[in-house]
Design brief:
Layout: E1 2-4, H1 17-26, H2 30-44, H3 51-60, E2 63-66, H4 78-84, E3 89-93, E4 98-102, E5 105-108, E6 119-123
Parallel strand pairs: 1-5
Antiparallel strand pairs: 2-6, 3-4, 3-6, 4-5
Helix pairs in contact: 1-2, 2-3
Length: 124
């Protein structure tokens, strides 16, 4: 389920997880995702990595926000989500991380499968 992925052109691994997730989900370059998300943040007077900013950006690109399954709110992990949703493109947000899931695999610079998603955006 875990597939190593890092679109950062300098191979950095910290602080840009939102950008990396968007590059995978939207098939865009790191630079393009970074600039577009910064512009969205400027328009909303908020930081590019805030839930409100990348959430509105995703909605403009055909994603809808969905509820995280509530079967075990403190133990439902990215790994479990991947098993439950083997088809589709998703952005999952944990308390401190953002990761892209495509067709039951999650793409990240580290194995974040044990993280607990709080927000889910699904590509329609």
């Amino acid at each position: 389920m875990y597939i190593p992925y890092n679109s950062n052109p300098c191979n950095k691994r910290v602080g840009d997880c939102t950008i990396r997730a968007l590059t995978k989900a939207l098939d865009m370059s790191w630079e393009d995702a970074y600039m577009k998300l910064c512009m969205q943040g400027l328009l909303l007077c908020d930081m590019p990595s805030s839930n409100a900013v990348y959430g509105s950006f995703l909605q403009e690109h055909g994603f809808v926000r969905e509820v995280v399954p509530n079967s075990c709110p403190d133990c439902y992990t990215v790994n479990q989500f991947c098993r439950d949703y083997p088809i589709g493109t998703y952005i999952l947000a944990t308390g401190s991380h953002v990761v892209c899931v495509i067709d039951g695999n999650y793409y990240d610079t580290w194995e974040s499968g044990d993280e607990v998603p709080l927000l889910v955006f699904r590509k329609e």
